[in-house]
Amino acid sequence: MKLDVNVLRYLSKDDFRVLTAVEMGQKNHEIVPMQLVDSISGLKHGGAFRCLKTLLQHKLVHHEGHKYDGYRLTYMGYDFLAIKTLLARGHISGVGRQIGVGKESDIFEVTNDAGEVFALKLHRLGRTSFRDVKSKRDYLGNRSSYSWLYLSRLAALKEFAFMKVCSPTV
To answer: What is the pLDDT of residue 130?
Structure first.
């Protein structure tokens, strides 16, 4: 699925609260039940369900209803949370075109308020060509269970730490 940042304009604060609630719920659940999303988001009168419909429409969450009824975050949903955080902190002000695709990440052009152009790397561990990451990388330590979103986050944190050592201006 291609990242469409124009959707970001049409998502409300409540939509992001629900998206964040799904992310928080995935710390302990592979599939987050609706009741947990509702309680974490704190929205009243079915607001979480309405927001989940919007998020499903834009493919930011995925509904699982086969064995266990609930929701999980997609890579695009995780990307939107990251972009929203970078926007809120003032690190970026716009997202441009995709400038690269690799086996473990997608790279986009981004700009800040001063007009400087940077590269934004969005990790994608778990693609079909890169499934053996557990044995080849030390992201997990002693954990036996994991999600690809969590591994992508760990990979990004580790890469950022290395970049910080190499260049203090990062």
So the answer is: 47
